[in-house]
Amino acid sequence: MSRGRTRLLRAAVTRLLSSLLVLWAAVTVVFVLSRASGDPVALLLPDDASADQVAQMKQTLGLDRPLPLQYLDFLGGLVHLDLGDSLVYKEPVTSLIIERIPATALLAATALLITVVVSFLAGSIGAMRRGTALDRVVMSGVLVGQSTPAFWVGILLVLLFGVTLRALPAAGYGTPAHLILPATTLAIFSVAVVSRLLRSSLIEVMGQDHVRTARAKGASEARVLMGHSLRNASMPVITVLGLELGSLLGGAILTEQIFNWPGIGRLTIDAISARDFPLVQGTVVLFAVTFIVVNLLVDLSYAIIDPRVRSHA
């Protein structure tokens, strides 16, 4: 094996071990916080439940055991991909999460697609028409998108397109029309962030010698953009896109609640309200694993896009 591949493999193993440490820290924090939020038995039993009924319920759910034992059981279950049973639904947490993953994955993937397409258009226009009226209009829209909270955007879209114009469904799930408003709500902030970053990165790259040389040889602006600038300008953008995917999953919690979208986010809100410890822990583990995997893929993509990363890995 060459020295470069050995370094790349060593870096990948180191990154994987650090990711496992981050995952352990995340699941430990959520375990502690979920126990500190209150007693779920108080919500599962009626107000006039006797002390014997409370004690029996705690014994049934395993909540009468010392916290260290509950924690070790939780970690042991994770190793075997067993997240326990929901206190409310009385079903395995893994099954409940698997049922909701397609809805959230569809929402996040659509929002990410909107982010990539719109931000690359806006960022490219801003860089190629820098200082013009068109650039100022685009950047003003980007600033508004970055300054407006997602939940406020969602409410406005519902009022405008769902209630006033009746052009799109205000809530629900099942058809492409149901996807437009929540995906747009989820994507607006990410579009603003990526557009500004891509514009700045493109302006810097388009001022470099190899781009000026391409222009001197008669290359069109489209050729300069697609063939000589976007590739070099995409490195920081890919990093932010990876982080934004994690933000999209986090933002899906509020967006799914606003649009009554039956995904992981809405399941998480319901679980928190009911103090359903196993279900809250399961959804947080899913978010943490997804975020870690995305960041690993982003790191590995550097080596594919830029050969200098492979040689210095």
From TrEMBL:
Membrane topology: Multi-pass membrane protein
Keyword tRNA processing: no
Transmembrane stretches, start-end: 105-128, 149-168, 180-198, 233-254, 284-305
Keywords for this protein: Cell membrane, Membrane, Transmembrane, Transmembrane helix, Transport
Subcellular location, principal: membrane
Top-rank taxon, per record: Bacteria
Domain ABC transmembrane type-1: from-to ranges: 101-298
Location within or outside the cell: Cell membrane
SUPFAM superfamilies associated with the record: MetI-like
PANTHER family: DIPEPTIDE TRANSPORT SYSTEM PERMEASE PROTEIN DPPB-RELATED
Family designation: Belongs to the binding-protein-dependent transport system permease family.
Official protein name in the record: ABC transporter permease
Taxonomic source organism: Brachybacterium kimchii
Lineage: Bacteria, Bacillati, Actinomycetota, Actinomycetes, Micrococcales
